[in-house]
Amino acid sequence: MRPGPGLPHACAGAAVLAVLLYAAWPAAAPERTVVVGHDNYFAFVKATPSAQAAPPAPAAVAGARRDAAVPAAVDAPPSPTALAQMEAEVRTLRQQGADEQAVYRLRAQRVNAQLAAQLAERELAETAWQQRVQAYRAERARVAGRGDDTPGQRAATLAQLRAERFDQEELARLEASDTPGVPVLKQD
């Protein structure tokens, strides 16, 4: 993709899609019971979901073949392709002026309600993050535009501003998003 006016929006869309895909995968992973201690190995194996699953009865297999035309269960983990298609539909809905309830209903139809709620929560968190970053960048530009401060004073003011608005994890994310240009790989 060539640099242009739409590049930041395309990158932001890709980042949101990556966050939404990441949000879907942990929710789809089966929960496992962890038993501490070497003596309890067999108890651990018995507690895993794969060990508890019994083979399907022949009648159930025949019924499954007959019901193959029925769409897959909503509780089945969605594929990344299905999530990407769903999020494309969400973008289309939003461009058409749909509210958050319509977006939630669409997501709940495609995936289970818990995952739809998690996607909405992650999207809200990403929107809040982007607003905080934009406010920080505006304040940073205001501080950099003041001509009466020395470079040391400006650096101290910016460090204080970052410390007030972001925690340690967020600072790393902020610094990564503020790095201009192409990433440079460092070799030891």
TrEMBL record:
<dbReference type="GO" id="GO:0006457">
    <property type="term" value="P:protein folding"/>
</dbReference>
<dbReference type="Pfam" id="PF03280">
    <property type="entry name" value="Lipase_chap"/>
</dbReference>
<dbReference type="GO" id="GO:0005886">
    <property type="term" value="C:plasma membrane"/>
</dbReference>
<dbReference type="GO" id="GO:0016042">
    <property type="term" value="P:lipid catabolic process"/>
</dbReference>
<keyword id="KW-0732">Signal</keyword>
<keyword id="KW-0443">Lipid metabolism</keyword>
<keyword id="KW-0143">Chaperone</keyword>
<keyword id="KW-0812">Transmembrane</keyword>
<keyword id="KW-0997">Cell inner membrane</keyword>
<feature type="signal peptide">
    <location>
        <begin position="1"/>
        <end position="29"/>
    </location>
</feature>
<dbReference type="GO" id="GO:0051082">
    <property type="term" value="F:unfolded protein binding"/>
</dbReference>
<keyword id="KW-1003">Cell membrane</keyword>
<keyword id="KW-0472">Membrane</keyword>
<protein>
    <recommendedName>
        <fullName>Lipase helper protein</fullName>
    </recommendedName>
</protein>
<dbReference type="InterPro" id="IPR004961">
    <property type="entry name" value="Lipase_chaperone"/>
</dbReference>
<comment type="similarity">
    <text>Belongs to the lipase chaperone family.</text>
</comment>
<keyword id="KW-0442">Lipid degradation</keyword>
<keyword id="KW-1133">Transmembrane helix</keyword>
